[in-house]
Specification:
Elements: E1 10-21, H1 24-32, H2 40-53, H3 55-58, E2 69-76, E3 80-91, H4 96-114, E4 122-132, E5 146-153, H5 155-158, H6 166-173, E6 179-181, E7 185-187, H7 191-203, E8 209-213, H8 224-228, E9 234-235, H9 237-248, E10 261-264, E11 267-272, H10 276-286, H11 293-297
Parallel strand pairs: 5-6, 5-7, 5-8, 8-11
Antiparallel strand pairs: 1-3, 1-4, 2-3, 9-10, 10-11
Helix pairs in contact: 2-4, 6-10, 9-10
Length: 308
């Protein structure tokens, strides 16, 4: 089974369909609901709903997820009985397998109820016809890559006593996104130097996104939030809240992180924790939804994704 613990919850929807191919006599009986074994639609609907809820019992690598809604509909066409299943959940993975399982179970039950009437029944065409949700729905395409800078805030790293891992983790993570990252810069926990770096980097007008890592805790020298907050033109409290809430699902220590985020001109500044795990968790919490800020910063509203 694939590990999806790093994924975030989003609204997921899927619709699948399939066909029980049948001759004229069976189709007419389905329309009139005169199949000897009983009401095919009601039976197949109940079977499909039950099957959707029990999908992980039959599909080996399928995660167990909470289905918020599943339903089936039926239509007698010129070819036979068309079955459509829909499902919805707020979860880390999609519901495509659940709706395909629902359609398949409904078709098998319909087949079983209709088979005394004909020998030429055929179940066919089971497929997903629509799906929504997941990170792919929130990705952005830009004419050019976004330009990102990374600042590592650490006395020991600045003194050469410790190798930087957090800055490298940021750069590695962003390789999967339309973002070009410069080599991480390193500064000690000096508020004035941190503030000056942020102001100068944003003023260059060559950086769209600036990440800092380190100095967001309660250590005697941790002062990154205090250094950066006064520089921000507009704060983005939702970004910091999202990082903390995501982290708190994994460790209670996340509530002690004091990240801040906001814009300096057209540069988005995000402060990340100093630990590698804290960096990874925060980035998973933010991407790809974070990128939606740039069309708004560029004045294009919610749809324009062309950098100026």
């Amino acid at each position: 089974m694939i590990n999806v613990s790093h994924k975030t919850h989003t609204l997921r929807y899927a619709r699948a369909e399939g066909l029980l191919r049948a001759g004229p006599e069976v189709r007419e009986r389905l329309r009139n609901e005169t199949i000897p074994k009983g009401n095919v639609r009601a039976t197949a609907r109940a079977a499909g709903i039950d099957a959707a809820k029990r999908t992980p019992e039959w599909v080996t690598f399928c995660q167990t997820l909470p289905l918020d809604w599943v339903d089936l509909s039926f239509e007698v066409t010129g070819e036979g009985l068309k079955v459509t299943a829909e499902a919805q959940t707020v979860w880390k993975t999609g519901v495509e397998i659940e709706v395909m399982t629902a359609v398949s179970a409904a078709l098998v039950n319909a087949y079983d109820m209709c088979k005394p009437l004909a020998d030429d029944l055929e179940m066919t065409g089971v497929k997903v016809v629509e799906k929504r949700g997941g990170s792919s729905d929130f990705e952005h395409d830009f004419e050019r890559d976004l330009r990102a800078a990374v600042l590592v805030v650490s006395d020991s790293t600045a003194a050469g006593e410790r190798e930087d891992r957090s800055g490298q983790t940021i750069a590695s993570f962003l390789e999967d996104y339309p973002v070009t990252v410069s080599r991480p810069d390193v500064l000690p926990d000096d508020p004035e130097r941190i503030r000056a770096y942020v102001e100068e980097t944003a003023a260059e007008d060559a950086v769209d996104l600036l990440f800092t890592t380190g100095g967001t805790g309660f250590g005697p020298r941790d002062a990154t939030p205090e250094a950066i907050a006064p520089v921000l033109d507009r704060t983005a409290p939702g970004i910091a809240e999202r990082m903390r809430s995501y982290g708190a699902e994994r460790t209670p220590h996340a509530l002690l992180s004091r990240q801040v985020a906001g814009t300096v001109g057209q540069t988005l500044v995000v402060t990340l924790p100093g630990s590698v795990s804290g960096v990874e968790e925060s980035l998973h919490a933010l991407f790809p939804g974070l990128l939606h800020i740039f069309p708004m910063l560029w004045g294009g509203g919610h749809d324009d994704t062309d950098p100026q």
